[in-house]
Amino acid sequence: MKLVVGLGNPGHKYVATRHNVGFQAVDLVARALETVIDRPFLRSLVGQGVYHGEKIILAKPQTYMNLSGEAVIRLLQWYKLDPPDLVVIYDDLDLEPGRLRIRDRGGAGGHRGVASIIRMLGAADFVRVRVGIGRPSARGPEVVDWVLGRPLPDEARAIDRALQVVPEVVWELVDGGVTAAMNKFNRREPV
């Protein structure tokens, strides 16, 4: 069993923001599994499906980004899963729009949602699928305004193309494991 969590902020005003690409990604995985993520459960919206015989729990924490760990820890405990069974999908300022990176452990890289998860789990050995959103220019908006803003049309197209690949990433994580997924997707140029 895998718990696939997309990070974002609840509420209509955040729907199409850069910081909500995690929510968009798990929605695409749900669509590929022919399910929806709509059941309120343990401070998240959840859904589930099966891929090649493996149950996949999909979740969108409703705690707001900076408290994501509060929802994730509850879900892991309820489903009796360990951190290596967790896949977290989120936005990354340090990757250009359209770039995907998969990691099997590491720090938060300044991402407060990931920091919250690490703090609550007391562990950092979970899979991360990072979706590039780029960084504002030196004369651009502050970082908080950037991540809570909507991408420009070219950025939105690049991000959307990357998001379309996320279900394939999840399938590879299930079928081949994290090393196979990193080898297959980390070398790709932005789509």
From TrEMBL:
Subcellular location: Cytoplasm
GO biological process, one term: rescue of stalled ribosome
Record bears the keyword tRNA-binding: yes
UniProt-annotated binding residues for tRNA: 14, 64, 66
Reactions accelerated catalytically: an N-acyl-L-alpha-aminoacyl-tRNA + H2O = an N-acyl-L-amino acid + a tRNA + H(+)
Group of enzyme by EC: hydrolase
Main location per the UniProt record: cytoplasm
GO cellular component: a single term: cytoplasm
Active-site residues, record numbering mapped to chain: 19
Signal peptide stretch: none
GO molecular function list: peptidyl-tRNA hydrolase activity; tRNA binding
Keywords from the named record: Cytoplasm, Hydrolase, RNA-binding, tRNA-binding
Pfam families: Pept_tRNA_hydro
Residues the record marks as site: Stabilizes the basic form of H active site to accept a proton: 91
Sites annotated Discriminates between blocked and unblocked aminoacyl-tRNA: 9
EC number: 3.1.1.29
Function: Catalyzes the release of premature peptidyl moieties from peptidyl-tRNA molecules trapped in stalled 50S ribosomal subunits, and thus maintains levels of free tRNAs and 50S ribosomes. Hydrolyzes ribosome-free peptidyl-tRNAs (with 1 or more amino acids incorporated), which drop off the ribosome during protein synthesis, or as a result of ribosome stalling.
Family per record: Belongs to the PTH family.
Oligomer and partners: Monomer.
Identification of the protein by name: Peptidyl-tRNA hydrolase
Species of origin: Desulfoscipio geothermicus DSM 3669
